Amino acid sequence: MALSKNDRRQRIKNRIRKIVTGTSSQPRLAVFRSNKEIYAQLVDDVSGETITAASSRDKEISSTKGSKVDIAALVGKSVAEKAIKAGVESITFDRGGYLYHGRVKSLAEGARGAGLKF
User: Fold this and answer.
1) Whole-prediction pTM
2) What are the tens digits of pLDDT across the range 77-93?
3) CB within 8 A of 90, min separation 6: which ones?
4) Could you tell me if 110 and 72 are in contact, meaning their C-beta atoms sit under 8 angstroms apart?
């Protein structure tokens, strides 16, 4: 029997998470993409804490108009600015089982453009 879309994504996500981990000096940028919104958070997997987060539901981002790809770039920029304020400059990217194109790629490029290295 063929896997459902969610089961397939969960398998890919587990495969990625075996390799990608976050530390306090180089946290993991985890991405979650729903049909309407996109969320990003920096996670220190060693201590199990979220350092900072941003989403398309934040007040300054939700008030802007544009396509979902444009808004994802703003979320990437926002999470990068918050990370730099928290003292983080280098991260590892966790695409969360999603393909690296569209909104996920736009978020990553927005974060790179704002100064994060990965």
Assistant:
1) 0.92
2) 999 999 999 999 999 99
3) 25, 26, 116, 117, 118
4) yes
Domains and CATH numbers, the chain: 5-113 (3.30.420.100)
Instruction: Please state, in angstroms and rounded to a whole number, the distance separating the CA atoms of residues 39 and 90.
Output: 19
3-state secondary structure of 103: helix
Give the phi and the psi of residue 50 in degrees, each rounded to 5: -90, 125
CA distances (Å), 113 to each of 3, 58, 88, 118, in order?
Answer: 36, 20, 15, 11
- Contact assessment for residue 93 and residue 108, using Cβ atoms and an 8 Å cutoff: yes
Question: pLDDT (tens digit, 9 = 90+) per residue, 29-46?
Answer: 999 999 999 999 999 999
42-74 burial code (b ≥16 CB/10 A, e <16)? bbbbeeeeebbbbbbeeeebeeeeeeeeebbbb
In the block, tokens 């736009």 appear at: 106
